[in-house]
Amino acid sequence: MLRRVLYFLLMIMTGGTAGVGGWCFKDYPELQPILALFLGRVDDQVQVDEPRPGGLAKAKAVLVDVFSRIPNRPGVYTVRIDEVRLDPAQFTKGHTVDIQARVRQVDEQGRESIVWESKTYGENLAMVGRDELSANWSNRPFEIDWRAGDQVIVEVWDRRAGLFSPTRFTMARPGPNAFPLASGTHALEVASRSRSAAESDLNRIVLDSRRSGDSSPRLDGAVERSSASRSDAPRTASSRSAPDRADDDQDERPIIIR
Predict the structure, then answer these.
(1) Predicted confidence (pLDDT) at residue 205 exceeds the cutoff of 70
(2) Which residues of the chain are in CATH 2.60.40.150 domains?
(3) Domain at 75-213, CATH homologous superfamily
(4) Distances in Å between the alpha carbon of 82 and those of 136, 171, 177, 253?
């Protein structure tokens, strides 16, 4: 893929006009810096400069960054929670909120695991009516190995919630086969609340994610099948037990008549 893209860029360099790069990538602005690395400044009024030295290495780095952010490819992702923000109107004025977050993963077999949890990093206190109800863990990235079919549940809650205050929020889930922790702003829905509380567009979570590698193969099924095949395999002479071999030796001994 990288080689094809680079060949396409070289074709534009040798056969296009000054504005061809902007026209070709008008729907993909993230690829325009790649063309600029080869051609210098590219627009409709400025002539194309000479290719910059070292452009190939820089273009490769930009391509890696662009394709690492494609949100629908299974693999290992590095994720940062840049911001969590809650609507103060849904809490009692004067109440001290301790904002916490957690990420859980459920695979296709229904096995659940906690990928990341914020409470290990301390409290995030804010007073309703005086402070902004926000928190971030940008310096606490985590990795998640995501495969199509896995469910990822993001929860935000107030660890100091009162009896009549909303206590738990969940991130809205994306469409099927889409990486659920894609970069961007996601809505938080009230999952546990009092009857008087309502949904608010101010409840949100901001994520930054980057694909860092391919998933490691799950060996559970392969190991079970391998064990079963070994147990069902026919017994050969080398796999017999010691008593069996001893009996065979006795049967095959020559008969001596004196």
Answers:
(1) yes
(2) 75-213
(3) C2 domain (2.60.40.150)
(4) 5, 14, 24, 81
* pTM of the shown model: 0.60
Using alpha carbons, select from 144, 167, 164 the residue that is nearest to residue 156.
167
Predicted pLDDT at 197: 54
What is the radius of gyration, based on Cα positions, of the chain? 30
Q: What Å distances lie between residue 109 and 106, 112, 145, 181, 221, CA to CA?
A: 8, 9, 15, 21, 11
The answer to whether residue 211 scores a pLDDT higher than 50 is: yes
Fill in the amino acid letter for 187: A
Helix residue ranges per DSSP H, 100-241: 220-232
- Tokens encoding 214: 């391919």
Q: Which amino acid is at 188?
A: L
Q: How confident is the model at residue 252 (pLDDT cuts 50, 70, 90)?
A: low
Alpha carbon 173 to its chain's center: 14
Cβ–Cβ under 8 Å, residues 82 and 209: no
Exposed, middle or buried: residue 183 (CB in 10 Å: 0-12, 13-18, 19+)? Answer: middle
